[in-house]
Hints:
- The protein is α+β, with helices and mostly antiparallel strands.
- Helices cover about 40% and strands about 10% of the residues.
- It has 27 helices and 17 strands.
- The strands form 4 sheets. It has a 6-stranded mixed β-sheet with strand order 2-1-6-3-4-5. A 6-stranded mixed β-sheet has the order 8-7-12-9-10-11.
- Helix 20 (about 475-480) packs across helix 26.
Amino acid sequence: MKGYTGKILFVDLSTGRIVAEPIPDEVYESFLSGVGLGCYVLHKKIPKGADPLGPDNVLGFVSGLLTGTGSVMTGRWMAVAKSPLTGGWGDANCGGTFSPAIKRCGYDGIFFRGTSDRPVYLYVDSHKAELRDATHVWGKDAVEAEDILEEECAKKQGKPKIAVIGTSGEKQSLISGICNDHGRIAARSGLGAVMGSKKLKAVVLAGNGRITCENPELMKTISKEFTGKVRKINIPRFLSGRLLEIAANLQSRMTRVAVPDGIMAAGILKKWGTGFNNVMGVVNGDTPIKNWNGSGLDFGKSRYRNLAPDLLKQREVKRYSCYSCVVGCGGISRIEDIAEGTFRETHTPEYETVSAFGSLLLNGNLDSILYINELLNRAGMDSISAGHAVAFAIECFENGILTSEDTGGLQLAWGNTEAIVKLLKQMIHREGLGDLLADGVKAASRRIGKGSLKYAIHVGGQEPGLHDSRFDPMMGVHYCADPTPGKHTIGCFQYYNYVQLWNEVSWAPKISIYPKYEEYLASSENATKSVAISCYKQVIDGIGGCLFAMTMGVHNWNPFRMLNAATNWHKTADEYLEIGMRIQTLKQLFNIREGIDPRNNRAHPRMAGNPPLENGPLEGKSVPIHEMVALYWEHMGWHGETGIPAKETVEKLSLTDFVA
Length: 660
């Protein structure tokens, strides 16, 4: 009755053997579930030097420890594997309804090794697990395949929950992800390619088992407290998104930073979803523009206001929430004015997608972005990486590195919507220039050569999220220092300020108000903040927690209380953050074992403001990212010069058995 099932399902696709494996209680106490359990299993099951697209790689689907326990905002699941994009630790996070389905089948995770000789899918319910032929859905996009399998496997008690790859995963694009809920994507790290290499089309879950909780009454009380707070926070209907633009203008001029109550974000997310930042980010400098080489002057009001959250809101026909969510930031939107008329609706595009195919490319056409969003969702391709790949190609074309002959006649230019859509389709189908770009900008620049590396924005092989490190320097630290480089969901100053960890964690620096310039310093205090938020995020990913709930503040949404209610462990916040440090350190040890030199995960000079922009809200800003990374390593107990975990740290965290 501790919130977890105590076992995983292990599938060998080469032999067809399927076995349930017990996981001792002490593993959960050391690593939680979710990403921590995945890290524990993969470290033991993947041999050193395994080919990410070969049979020895292990692909896992893991649920969170708190998923299904009566806790709120804990419905996330993660895919884990050795990444073919970076060559190191890979994970991807997604919401929807798939996470509780894993546990209802009686497992905390489902793992795959080997390679099938034909397309298959795994079917699991409360009584059996079996591999079934997937030839009839191989070649279908993610939405089509999910519809077919949903009908095929439906039971009296309801429809199954399905994780599936689209055609990009089948074609082993290194920027492909894994979809659920008709196009929601666990997009990062190229794990769709791993699934495609194994000829595994889908995982279909139809279990109806009970998910336990040690103290359900206490969990109910905790969840009701948070839910009550969220329900009180609403943005009046008459207030428009133009206020967000005004707020961003003010923010760009502020010289001091105050600590807000993160619960206020609940109202913004309920009204606009993540699209609230579509305009704000351009105005305050958070959003990278023109392949990280431009400013708001390049993407002016006549363009960025076309992507305003109110315009997206007008397109929405339905709102939805993830499992156990009380905010509901998702939606379904109409697609209009696309010549082909293939699709009429799509998931309302997230901020990252709007920016990747909007400001990053100087594209102010909202219709094209809605259409692109659906293309990506169905193909199962990461919008962050795909947008960067297109931006890279445009800049190469602009500078004569690529020619019309290379592009098949496409005239690549900033804001050329027609050319952008056509190039993306080439990437999805792996045709022409798109075949090079479908593996990300690092692989493309290596193949193209001719000085193209100058325009290839990536960190360690993965394209960064659409949040500018010159705006929030700690974001740049985690782009480079996290074992899965380029991710925007690990830590930044804004996250740290909103979470207010100092209310629970004894060593987390307490702040109230400080000068903005302090964020640009390579200081011991900033390094401690980076370590704290990084370790905390590992806890969140171990419980299936939502990033947005996390940023509403530990004083509002408290995972430590929920964990103790679910497990009866009675651990302190400090002890839980030590678990987070253990998970993060084990990821780093995995990378070291696989030959990754952490010093090579360097930010592109533009990301550090080298040289600084000459205009816009980030004018003159530069960031000592690599000095800050070295201090982060040092405060994590890793060697400051190399990023390798120190022997003393490995021993303190009881990870000696994981070091060869």
